[in-house]
Write a structure and sequence with these properties.
- The structure is a single chain.
- By secondary structure, the chain is mostly beta strands.
- It contains two helices and 22 strands.
- It has a six-stranded parallel beta sheet with strand order 1-4-8-12-16-20. A six-stranded parallel beta sheet has the order 3-6-10-14-18-22. It has a four-stranded parallel beta sheet with strand order 7-11-15-19, with no helix packed on it.
């Protein structure tokens, strides 16, 4: 939003300069504005999963925050359900530039019922999505980016950062069940307790 405002102010300045100079020079207008971020913060004490696309609603460019920084490490409590920054497991669209930040979390179910994704797609490319996991408990894997069994498009440039808490499932920067490339994905483990593997990227299937 601020980038767009800045660009418009620059354009106005160029127009003013052109007029003051008698219109004696040509200038090029900015070809595109930066994408607008869609923000959503959830501070409820109890949720049934939370998918960013249900809240914004947008597949990309979401900034989703769960919990309160410096708050309780076991709130919100999630009884079941996917938690994601953007996208859908059934999506055919590309999913990109979502950020999911978690400050404290406790889930009651594992076994694939409480997966966490920065960005998730069905068959579309999944690019530059992020999860920042600060405190809390995840019983299932955390993926920066992920797409499904029928996907042929790439999973690229996604990341997970774990600052504290407990992750009982895998921590994966990017993964696919399909046949697309999985490249440039990263995991940063700063602190915490981990019950399974950590990997930058995986082709699972």
């Amino acid at each position: 939003m601020f980038n767009g405002l800045k660009a418009r102010r620059q354009l106005a300045l160029y127009v003013a300069l052109g007029l003051s100079a008698g219109g004696g020079f040509l200038f090029h207008t900015p070809s595109a504005y930066a994408a607008e971020t869609h923000d959503y913060t959830e501070t409820a004490t109890s949720i049934n999963g939370l998918e960013g696309t249900d809240k914004t609603p947008s597949m990309s460019d979401n900034k989703i925050t769960l919990g309160t920084e410096g708050g309780s490490t076991n709130k919100p409590f999630s009884t079941y359900g996917t938690i994601s920054g953007g996208g859908k497991k059934t999506a055919t669209e590309d999913v990109s530039n979502n950020t999911l930040t978690i400050h404290g979390l406790q889930v009651s179910n594992g076994g694939g019922q409480s997966m966490i994704y920065g960005g998730v797609g069905g068959t579309g490319a999944v690019t530059n999505n992020r999860v920042c996991f600060n405190n809390g408990l995840s019983k299932d894997p955390i993926y920066g980016g992920f797409n499904g069994l029928s996907a042929t498009k790439a999973v690229t440039g996604n990341s997970v950062t774990v600052a504290d808490g407990t992750v009982e499932g895998d921590v994966q920067g990017g993964g696919t069940e399909g046949t697309g490339a999985v490249t440039g994905n990263t995991v940063t483990l700063k602190s915490g307790t981990f019950g399974d593997e950590a990997m930058g990227g995986i082709v699972d299937g």
